[in-house]
Specification:
11 helices
């Protein structure tokens, strides 16, 4: 009973949407750390991390230690930031900007190459080059918090209410002027409005289909040159995602989605759906399955290379495969 009471006092439990997670109370070490970081932000210091465009400035102190949490503008990276904002305000897409930066070999913030998501990010969470308020001399802290699910052990970022955000002016860190910032925000707002209108009309992507495999080969086709995924780049054609989004692959070949699906299904029907092949594939696992009293599972097969420029991983679910076979028959 004493142990249970102590745990109840130490942690505050709440039921999340999909799992049970806990939030430490004000007396926990996590809460004390949170208060310490809040104090650093109020003092004009960085609470951790370093945004693209800045360097950490560590100045010596009389006691032999160095200052922490001070940032200074990196002029080389600041020029890249101004270029990104200027190009976006002029009408270029984040994808075109990322491709142009990769073509001239500009180092990306963290990944080996630039991607459109590095530039556009998530406007609600304040991620991405175009959404970083630090570039206009304002530091926003406590936008989100991380919680850990006891069952899976994974950390998940959850947004905090806007009224709990801590905003501190840091004019010495401004890189983008107000006029250019406002122009970018206006274009972002117009783009979001157009997407929402398309979704309402049924022409845009729907939220309830966001995590479902939309097509038979979704997530299974790879570029034969660089290994990146083959994605839908138009209404009916698939192409290399690295060539499309980053400009780092020279494979510009595309293929109709229906043609690729038909080739894969024909190959399965002609080469794998035969009694001889089925018997060969299942022979090694039949004795073990019978011994354990469990139904045999199909063994994994090697990737099926369809051409030098495209390969398909054999991870298509049986449900999708059966549905496609019956539809083609």
């Amino acid at each position: 009973m004493a142990t249970a009471l102590h745990m109840a006092q130490e942690y505050q439990w709440r039921l999340g949407e999909s799992s049970l997670i806990y939030t430490p109370m004000a007396t926990s070490p996590l809460a004390r750390t949170h208060r310490g970081l809040e104090g650093r932000v109020k003092a004009g210091k960085s609470a951790g991390g370093k945004s693209y465009g800045y360097d950490i400035n560590r100045s010596p102190l009389p006691d032999g230690t160095f200052t922490t949490g001070d940032l200074v503008i990196n002029e080389t990276e600041a020029e890249i930031i101004r270029r990104i904002f200027t190009d976006y305000a002029a009408g270029l897409s984040a994808r075109r900007i990322a491709t142009a930066l990769n073509e001239v070999g500009v180092p990306a913030p963290r990944a080996p190459t630039w991607s459109f998501s590095t530039i556009s990010g998530n406007w609600k969470r304040g991620t991405g080059i175009l959404n970083n308020d630090l570039y206009i001399g304002e530091r926003i802290w406590n936008r989100q918090r991380f919680v850990k699910c006891p069952q899976s052990g994974k950390r998940q970022a959850l947004p905090n209410p806007a009224e709990t955000w801590l905003r501190e002016p840091v004019p010495e860190l401004r890189i983008i002027d107000e006029e250019l910032w406002d122009a970018v925000k206006e274009r972002q707002g117009a783009t979001r409005s157009a997407i929402l209108e398309a979704r309402c009309d049924g022409d845009g992507p729907q939220a309830h289909n966001g995590r479902r495999a939309r097509y038979l080969l979704s997530g299974t086709a790879e570029c034969g040159n660089c290994g990146a995924g083959y994605i839908m780049i138009s209404a009916d054609r698939m192409g290399c995602s690295a060539a499309r989004n980053r400009g780092t692959c020279q494979n510009r070949k595309t293929i109709k989605r229906l043609d690729l699906e038909e080739r894969v299904l024909c190959g399965l029907r002609e080469r794998l759906m035969t009694p001889e092949m089925t018997s060969t594939l299942w022979r090694p696992i039949r004795p073990k399955a019978a011994k354990n009293g469990a139904p045999p599972k199909r063994p994994a097969t090697k990737p099926n290379r369809t051409s030098p420029r495209l390969r398909v991983r054999s991870t298509i679910s049986l449900k999708r495969l059966r549905r496609a076979c019956f539809r083609r028959a």
